[in-house]
Amino acid sequence: MIYVTGDTHGQIDRFKEKPVAGLKKGDTLIVLGDFGFLWDDSRQEKKNRHWLSKRRYKILFIDGCHENFDLLAQYPTEDFMGGKAKHIEGNLWYILRGSVLTIEDKKLLCFGGGESDDIEDRDEGLNWWRAELPTPQELDACRENLRASGGGAVDYILTHEAPGKVLDFLGLQGLQRNWLHSFLDELNEKTAHKQWLFGRYHKDQPIGTKMRAVFTDLIPLE
Q1: What's the predicted TM-score (pTM) here?
Q2: Separation CA 40–CA 74 (nearest Å)
Q3: Which of 67, 92, 144, 188 would you label with 180, given CA atoms 20 to 30 Å apart?
Q4: pLDDT > 90? residue 171
């Protein structure tokens, strides 16, 4: 079974407590950004990563706003389940933006990234990276991956950020829109999908029948 949850922010207890602790061998857990276990590369963080890599289920994550992109860049890119990923360790993988994965006969479009709303309080290269927002090349690569995977139809879209049109439903009318919001609006309009799940806003909230904000809930992709 494939499961999705929201930002974990390096909180190892999220994986030691139910419902995540009940996942079985052969299951896949996907974290929708701000994973938090590749941040300062401290001794404790490495210990936590090693523990996660030994779980009986796979852990995949996309990037969010708060990632150490310099650290992520050190891992080599590999082909993975029809897309591209960086193998961190054991059962732990980082999924690159725009990858269309095929897991258990389901097509999953994965696209990380977002814009920090506290940039003025952060220092570039220390706790903030420009790479948090995608490049035009990454947007184009995503479009091409969709075309190559079957004409722009997937089962699920998994992102950190939400499409711009959804922000009002979350009570975020005043949030500054950027090109990532516009691109995700484009995906929403042009990509056939059963459901879209995103993690950024620390809410567990369905939005209509096809969109869901995810934080601590564990959502099965059935």
Answers
A1: 0.96
A2: 13
A3: 92
A4: no
Report whether 189 contacts 157 (CB < 8 A).
no
- Burial zone of 12 (CB within 10 Å; 0-12 exposed, 13-18 middle, 19+ buried): middle
pLDDT band at 120 (very low <50, low <70, confident <90, very high): confident
As a whole number, the mean pLDDT across the chain is 95
The DSSP code sequence of 161-184 is SPPGGGGGGGT-TTSPP-HHHHHH
Instruction: Tokens for 20, please give them.
Output: 């995540």
Which whole-number Å values give the CA distances from 11 to 49, 127, 180, in the listed order?
Answer: 11, 17, 27
* Cα Rg, the chain, nearest whole Å: 16
Among 135-139, 150-154, 157-161, name the one with the lowest average pLDDT.
150-154
Cβ 161 vs Cβ 196: under 8 Å: no
Residue 27 has which token pair?
């299951």
Q: Hey, what amino acid is at 82?
A: G
Assess contact for 82 and 100: CB atoms under 8 A: yes
Token digits for 134?
């995608």
Residue 165 · residue 186 · CB < 8 Å: no
Model confidence band, residue 67 (pLDDT cutoffs 50, 70, 90): very high
* Half-sphere exposure at residue 103, Cβ-oriented, CA atoms within 13 angstroms: 24
Q: Kind of pairing, strands 211-213 and 205-207? A: antiparallel
What's the start-to-end Cα distance of the chain, in Å? Answer: 8
